[in-house]
Prior knowledge:
Blueprint: H1 23-49, H2 60-81, H3 90-93, H4 99-123, H5 128-133, H6 135-148, H7 150-158, H8 163-180, H9 205-232, H10 240-256, H11 262-287, H12 294-317, H13 324-346
Helix pairs in contact: 1-2, 1-7, 1-8, 1-10, 2-4, 4-6, 4-7, 6-8, 7-8, 8-9, 8-10, 9-12, 9-13, 10-11, 11-12, 12-13
Amino acid sequence: MTSTLTRPPDVTTPSSKRxxxxxxxxxxxxxxxxxxxxxxxxxxxxxxxxxxxxxGFFTPWHALLYGGFAATAAWTWWLxxxxxxxxxxxxxxxxxxxxxxxxxxxxxxxxxxxxxxxWHEIFGVEVSLEAGLSPSHVTLTIGVILLITSQMRSWLASxxxxxxxxxxxxxxALGTIGGLLIINGLIGVTTIAPTRAFDPAMGAPSYxxxxxxxxxxxxxxxxxxxxxxxxxxxxxxxxLATAIVGSLGLFLxxxxxxPTPLTGAIVGMTLAAAVVDVxxxxxxxxxxxxxxxxxxxxxxxxxxxxxxxxxxGLQIASGIRWSxxxxxxxxxxxxxxxxxxxxxxxxxxxxxxxxxxxxxSV
Length: 362
């Protein structure tokens, strides 16, 4: 007897309905992401320079931040909601590639925002390292990363260049700012430890400062390499290193009101990133995107290059007082980390067993 039972319809997004957002859609989304990061910047600036004016959750700086979020989230949801008449399951089926994750990020942000409101009202305003480790701020950060990198995912899926590359690179840079803001004091970009004299005696204050400075360079190399290699493993991206480093550096300088010698360090770091972009673009032109060791070379050049520029900037602005073993070792170890992470990014997953089902990526 033939069974009349049929397999229930698949509720995952059908591949036939997976669309790529238009350039206009990505442009508007990227502008919303920029507005959100500008709101984050005003709030970060207020935390750093106007702490006495922050007495709770309801501040002008939070209004700008959440206004930018509202605009970005509304546009993200609209891209699927506009298909509601033709598809009742628009909230499952009609997200352009890359934007479904962004929509999830908007929900995570709302949870973090509610938590942040209660946290501020109960415990007051966090400062310094406390702000970075606040659970509500960590939740907000996760939401921001998922939301404002929608255009990056859309660009990578489209395979297009031109203006689409601009919005994709901008989304990557803005996502880096959002992701690293809460721990910016730990990632090397803001360190001026090399300008302080080094005392080799174990436990001396300058020994601890130097150790923390080297650690910051190494941690910063690893974290900044994540967005850089994430894009580089998929395609060449002109200006990617400059956009990531320059936008993050500008954000931090505005937040801290352009202190010396940090300004010199970040300017040097950004110029070095531009040189890295030129070298990598030339290598991709000559060797191709499938060339052996492409990503390990890119990772090593990026990590070693940006900290070389950072140290040169510090030397010009104030003078480096570390020994050559310290500053050169920090650069070389960062380059090694870059090469190792590049090797991991270039590795291919093992082939699946023949009987293992293929899963749909959403």
